Amino acid sequence: MRRRTALIGLALGGAALSMPRLVLAKTPEVYANSNNQLFNEGFDPVGYFTDGATVRGDASIATTYRGAIINFASESNRDTFLADPDTYFPRYGGYCAFAMAHNAIAPTVPEAWTIHTDGRLYLNFSLGVRDEWRKDPDGYIALADPNWPGILDR
Prior knowledge:
This protein has two domains: 28-89, no CATH class; 90-154, no CATH class. It is built from seven helices and four strands; from the N terminus they run ααββαααββαα. It has helices spanning 2-18, 45-50, 75-83, 85-88, 97-101, 127-133, 137-144; strands at 58-65, 68-72, 113-115, 121-123.
């Protein structure tokens, strides 16, 4: 009986070694809907700057950026974005700025946004989280910056 158990153990162990290894996918560089890769629920990132508000984008006026589909309210907004995407695209790939400061990744909602004095757009998980983030944005940015983008590889 012991010999049979030992042989079964060796056989299973060998099979396990020959099986393909599970490789975990890297977290995407941009937070987008996993079903359709739509960024920011279809809201126009340039609209935060030009209108000071969340502006619904139009699917017929879109571009792909870092693997995500970004909708724009106008061709002018799309062209503005394409001329300088780093200015208009949110920090931390659109992931929650508050979570990033706590060495974590969290999704965001379009309404929880801030254009900081550094001229950059930051998104947060919720309006409540955004309110907390706004209490010390410089401090949270200082904590978040060292985590980005290395956190994506974890």
